[in-house]
């Protein structure tokens, strides 16, 4: 029986072309203008799972976009791996910054990806990474090496908060029963140094609205005499961090898990170059919470960031006006033990309390989720590490990521199983940014590594 390496070599052009076809469908879940495309993508995922060898594939209707469920059960007494991924993507804007159209995938070489990378929205997050699992299944079925049962659950609302997935999981606990959940929707350190994500941050996402006068006013006739909502909003937002860049919301840090000096020393061992980091982003310096280094600031520490801010006149030229309203979208990334609903409440209370007389403030929560940490002594972690070690030639390093996949904490709560985050993307792959891409090397390495996870997971489960 041919092994996975030669199978990938033999079929790589088809693997790449199939992914390219999937990337052509603009499955932007945030924008209803694309809703038919999201549904078409769900169908395409269903087809791909059937072709790869699932015995049962269903398009499961939800209050939102459909969830694709697929399975191949070879023996109920063997372990079951549940693969999760998402087929929706982030909006592509700003369009003018793409060097090729976001839904017309092309392969281009980059410094980090000398063998080429596929440029398209969703290439890495998450169509490319999700599809590695479909192709790994194809290999295991074709070569008769699938060592256990497998279930797939691929959703279309991850980028907008996974509302329907929570609904689906609560209603299908029996169907989704598994021994481990496997997800490729994170990154790794570099193509030479694999890593396994052992933590994800939680999230609270809110929108704020500051209202002053009941209409836009002449900024000469009224300026200085009434509160300007944009001035006030800017001041309120600025006050949310102190001079050391700590967040000033009372109670915000109360439950934050503090890492021991040993744990921080362990983290500091992961290879990282501050110079390269700054150069890649064209920055003259980094910025953040006093007392923590970059790799801590973006993983084990909570944050508060404005994601968008608007109000007033933004057209050409100048218009002398005091706007009636100002708005901002704010995300807070949370760390273990912080509860997102509690933090949302603390934010709302504090933000409302700091509003000066002369304006009114409205806070609307969007979505959120809990953070996640997973131990490195589980069978799943060990199996993943053995798989990476075999395909990359070096063991993986455990790394806590700054990103969020809120549904992971819910999986643990509802399905009582651990999640293994086997990501193959790189931070430089520009997920959520213009020119998102996924290395051909990474895509094929992922397909190669996944079957080994199954093999070792089953071996270690015995
Ligand atoms: N795949 C990302 C999350 C991610 C990326 C985690 C890289 C770790 C490393 C996911 O699609 C995502 O973008 N999640 C959102 C949260 C969601 C609720 C919108 C995020 O982190 O902003
Ligand atoms: Mn993702
Ligand atoms: Mn994403």
TrEMBL record:
Pfam families, alphabetically?
M20_dimer (PF07687), Peptidase_M20 (PF01546)
- Membrane spanning residue stretches: none
- State any single GO MF term: metal ion binding
Q: Which residues form the Peptidase M20 dimerisation domain?
A: 199-357
- SUPFAM superfamilies from the entry? Bacterial exopeptidase dimerisation domain, Zn-dependent exopeptidases
- The answer, when asked if Chaperone is one of the entry's keywords, is no
What keywords sit in the KW lines? Hydrolase, Metal-binding, Protease
What InterPro entries does this protein's entry cite? Answer: Bact_exopeptidase_dim_dom, Cyt/Met_Dipeptidase, Peptidase_M20, Peptidase_M20_dimer
Q: Which CDD domains match?
A: M20_dipept_like
Question: Can you name this protein?
Answer: Peptidase dimerization domain protein
Instruction: Give me any GO biological process, just one.
Output: proteolysis
The record ties this protein, via Gene3D superfamilies, to: 3.30.70.360, Zn peptidases
